[in-house]
Write a structure and sequence with these properties.
Layout: H1 2-11, E1 20-24, H2 29-40, E2 44-51, H3 57-73, E3 77-81, H4 84-91, H5 95-108, E4 115-117, H6 122-135, H7 139-142, E5 148-149, E6 152-153, H8 161-170, H9 187-202, H10 206-235, E7 241-242, H11 249-262, H12 269-280, E8 283-288, E9 291-296, E10 299-304, E11 312-314, E12 319-323, E13 326-333, H13 343-346, E14 349-350, E15 360-362, E16 369-370, E17 379-380, H14 381-384, H15 390-393, E18 398-401, E19 404-408, E20 412-413, E21 426-433
Parallel strand pairs: 1-2, 1-4, 2-3, 4-6
Antiparallel strand pairs: 5-6, 7-10, 8-9, 9-10, 11-15, 12-13, 13-21, 14-21, 15-18, 16-17, 18-19, 19-20
């Protein structure tokens, strides 16, 4: 199994040889085997355990197990405790969805620049394919769980559950079992406990067959994504996307899916179908809360509903703007030397030569994304501000250019405008909260 994991890591460029990584450790068989194999392969691995506080003494047992395991292995462990029940009640989420959101948010605090390794395996991938197929999906849905997504990597994604259990047995390594995984009270457990065993009766080589099919799905998905990207790039217009004359149904659907992802909107089949109709027939639809899509003569544009808290102020250097309770000042640094600044101060300085168009001070809009400096993945501005009270989020300062957000108050600048050794002049952003003065 160790060799298979190493081949997977290298095939998908998950980790640098001998590099560092963070392991999401639940204490179950999958995550324990992941931690062991990463150590065995020579990676500098840290672990994070998140206690969801959903199973009483069993949750405490899992936490103690992870603490003892990491102590014995000499692995640095961080433990986080989250209140899933209260969070789900407050945000009207299912326990599964709420736990996932809180878990990743808790782990992200410990990543720094390292990638997160999760223990999803081939069985999980197959169950996801079945789940997507039952709900209805495109070819992309048939590919199951991606080996790499943003800063998350899955080194066990080509390993079966049986291989994992055999690996642990040969090493005489204990693990804990989540009792809720043995209850067929949710869709995934029904698939795992009831459907998969019947499929194995039909084909005992199910996972070997699935692996071969999975590669075909991935090849088809890769081709569709390639032609979809070509169509989307060709359709880009100054203030939207012009799909006039597009007749390749598969490429158009794929392009609309990519377009929605750019806007950080979940690209469901229904949304894609609704927008596709706007390519051929003029109209306007509400695609998401506060977000509308307009179609006119094949051109698709996005419109955002304004609220009383929205603001939009064109900005120039060497001037202070009063925005709500904040004073926002842009200061031009005519002779910039990066060695004069530390990493913290650089998060508030942008390179004006890397901007696309003019600067604007505004509230966040829709589900726009930003790739912050120091991170190798995109985040939605809405997610970054999620910890603020709802009535405070629209008051947060966002600075943007024609390509979107370049600075978010409290989080820093986008990597695309981050100053480097080549920067000759810069613009510093200072924000003062007048209530603190």
């Amino acid at each position: 199994m160790t060799d298979k994991v190493l081949n997977t890591i290298r095939k998908y460029g998950m980790l640098d040889d001998g590099g560092s990584a963070v392991c999401a450790l639940s204490g179950g068989a999958d995550s324990v085997s992941l931690l062991l194999v990463l150590k065995e392969l020579g990676y500098k691995v840290r672990a994070v355990h998140v206690n969801h506080n959903l199973r009483g003494d069993e949750s405490l047992r899992d936490e103690r197990f992870c603490i003892d395991l990491c102590r014995d292995l000499g692995v640095e462990l961080s433990v986080e405790s989250v209140d899933v029940l209260s969070y789900c009640k407050q945000n009207k989420l299912s326990l599964e969805d709420g736990a996932r959101r809180l878990r990743y948010a808790a782990i992200e605090k410990h990543l720094n620049s390292d990638r997160l390794c999760t223990a999803h395996n081939l069985n999980d991938c197959f169950e996801t394919t079945l789940f997507n197929l039952v709900r209805g999906c495109s070819v992309s849905g048939l590919t199951g769980i991606p080996p790499v997504r943003d800063n998350i990597v899955r080194p066990l994604i080509e390993v079966t559950k049986d291989e994992i259990l055999d690996y642990l047995k040969r090493r005489n390594q204990d693990y804990v079992t989540d009792s809720t995984n043995l209850e067929d009270d949710c869709s995934r457990n029904i698939i795992r406990l009831n459907v998969v065993p019947e499929l194995l009766r039909i084909n005992p080589s199910l996972y070997k067959t699935y692996s071969a099919s999975l590669q075909n799905f991935k090849d088809a998905d890769s081709y569709i994504e390639s032609v979809s990207k070509e169509l989307l790039n060709a359709a880009r217009d100054k203030d939207g996307f012009n799909f006039f004359g597009s007749r390749d149904n598969i490429a158009l659907s794929g392009a609309l899916k990519l377009m929605l992802r750019e806007k950080a909107i979940e690209p469901s089949s229904m949304r894609i179908s609704e927008i596709k109709s706007l390519v051929f027939e003029d109209g306007r639809i509400n695609i998401s809360k506060g977000v509308y899509v307009r179609g006119k003569s094949g051109k698709i544009t996005f419109e955002y509903e304004k609220t009383n808290d929205d603001f939009f102020i064109p900005a120039v250097p060497d001037k202070t703007y009063n925005v709500g309770r904040f004073d926002v000042t842009f200061t031009e640094i005519s002779q910039f030397d990066i060695s004069d600044y530390n990493n913290r101060s650089l998060k508030c300085i942008i390179d004006p030569n890397k901007l696309c168009g003019e600067l604007v001070i505004r509230s966040y809009c829709g589900n726009e994304t930003i790739k912050l400096c120091g991170r190798n993945f995109n985040s939605t501005v809405k997610k970054l501000l999620a910890k603020l009270p709802v009535d405070e989020r629209k008051k947060a300062i966002v600075v943007s250019d024609d390509d979107g957000a370049v600075f978010v108050q409290g989080f820093g600048v986008a990597s695309r405008v981050f100053c480097g050794s080549e920067t000759a002049s810069a613009v510093k952003i200072d924000i003062i909260d007048r209530k603190d003065v």
